[in-house]
């Protein structure tokens, strides 16, 4: 990726629909490109489909012109995978007087280092092989969370998308990561449009299994899909 140019798919203000910040108003900046190809991914992040190509200063001017930052809780850096643009973000974030909420697949720990001092909230994914189809990424997640914890001011939490193929080994490994780094774990049932793929009973069973091992666990579906908003 270019160090001082970002390719962005879209920018819009909406309501956060995932995790412990459900219901807050955010400016979403969706960056193009991703280093993973999860089979449940529902976003268009292809690098060549960028609608905006900006330098940090150009993006700042666009945001100041188009959005009222005083009316939002934070700026969500999402994608795709925003850490593929870490060099750009290291230049851009200090220009903006706002909280920054990083949504990441938690596999690019070296890139996280570059902006660790600039983000306020990290919404990290724990990618379960049974749901993603991409293989085991727990080692990469472990390294990522180790680095994230170096900045004590960051509020860190993780989401784990699951379906009825989730295994006991995945549940144990996910909970162990949460316990090791003492963060809140959000269990997120896989969705198909506004429908949960795992049954409510199955989701509650997974929730109960996690709670027996760790008490900082919450079961939260993708609320924005029920609301039919982005």
CATH architecture: Alpha-Beta Barrel
What order do the SSEs take from the amino end to the carboxyl end, as H and E?
A: EEEHEHEHEHHEHEEEHEH
What is the top-level CATH class?
Alpha Beta
Q: What does the oligomeric state look like here?
A: single chain
Q: How many angstroms does the end-to-end distance come to?
A: 26 Å
Mean pLDDT: 94
**Residue share in helices?**
25-40%
Task: List the strand order in the largest sheet.
Answer: 3-1-2-4-5-6-7-8-11
**CA gyration radius, whole angstroms:** 17 Å
Total strands: the figure is: 11
Structural class: alpha/beta
CATH topology, by name, is TIM Barrel
CATH superfamily: Aldolase class I
How many distinct folded domains? 1
Separate helix tally: 8
Protein architecture, described:
The chain is an alpha/beta fold and 230 residues long. The protein has one domain: TIM Barrel (Alpha-Beta Barrel). The chain is built from eight helices and eleven strands. It has helices spanning 56-66, 86-92, 109-115, 129-132, 138-148, 168-181, 200-213, 223-227, and strands at residues 6-15, 25-31, 52-54, 74-78, 100-104, 121-125, 155-162, 184-189, 191-192, 195-196, 217-219. The strands form two sheets. Strands 3-1-2-4-5-6-7-8-11 form a nine-stranded mixed sheet. Strands 9-10 form a two-stranded antiparallel ribbon. Strand 5 (100-104), helix 3 and strand 6 (121-125) form a beta-alpha-beta unit. 36% of the residues are buried. The mean pLDDT is 94.
